Amino acid sequence: MSRRLHSAGAIGAAFCALLAAAVGAGAAETAEAGKESAVRKLSFSAEIEVDPAGGVRAGEVRGIAPQLQEWVRGKLGGIKLLPARDQLPGQVARSQLGGQLVLTPMAGDAYAIDVESLQVAPRFLARAVPHYPPAMIRGDISGAALLETRIGGDGRVLSARIVHATREEFSGPVLAAARQWKLEPQFLAGQPVEVVMQWPILFAVETCRTPSSCAHDSAAPGLPDGWACQWDGSLPRVAGQPACADAIEIRGSRVRRNTSPIEIR
Asked: What is the pLDDT of residues 5-37, one digit of tens each?
């Protein structure tokens, strides 16, 4: 049975059929199997244009059912971002914005619908995964590295450096992987621009022994105290968005990109 979807705005009759399509996305939802009353969270990304006043025009939306994409575009059109540092009057910045669509059960057959965890960041087109150093695995040694990348107008990594690392052994694999990355190009006033981003790379020794236990394994530890990302202002930004890009967790042969960035104060 489908539920109706509600939001802060007006809802048309077409929304009555959206639940089946939304939860049909499957892998992205966080509801426990068989619990229809659980909250559903669906990850999405959207192409956006940001004007100098922070107004947003959303374009293509990926990751969610087509019936929900138009709702997301309308929702994003009502938010305000912080413009890019070098954005002048009349100039438009083009980037990508990620977030989660949240479906919350209400009384009867209704769902409330909203978005959360919004952040501006280039979308990966190609990404190599850092190798967990075998010596660190054998020694049961977890750790972290804070990576800074300068991304060219074509989306390729022009340079990469390690800002901090808990062990030198983590630095080489992180740099080798980062130099193979390619991200969605970013634009200002119709011209491709370079951007600088900092990425927490977290290494955690695998503790699970079976695929089912790995699925519920705890998150890797965060960055050590005193480490802080710096936001260079080359991209628009959601107010309150952490300066770090999404953390990338490495667990032996498994990798996970956090849906929510680590808060660095």
From this structure: 444 433 343 444 455 455 444 433 333 333 445
Could you give the CA distance from residue 39 to residue 36 in angstroms, rounded to a whole number? 8
Domains of the chain (ranges; CATH) run 4-120 (no CATH), 124-257 (3.30.2420.10)
Contact predicate 220/202, CB 8 Å = yes
Token pair of 94 as six digits: 């083009």
Distance in angstroms (rounded) separating the CA atoms of residues 26 and 33: 10
Helix, strand or coil, per DSSP, at residue 49: strand
Amino acid present at 166: T
Strands 191-193 and 186-188: antiparallel
Provide the H-helix boundaries in 63-218.
66-76, 134-138, 168-178, 211-214
d(CA 87, CA 242): 20
Do 170 and 111 form a contact (C-beta atoms < 8 A)? no
End-to-end CA gap in the chain? 45
CA-wise closest residue to 50 among 238, 241, 236: 236
Say what the pTM is: 0.76
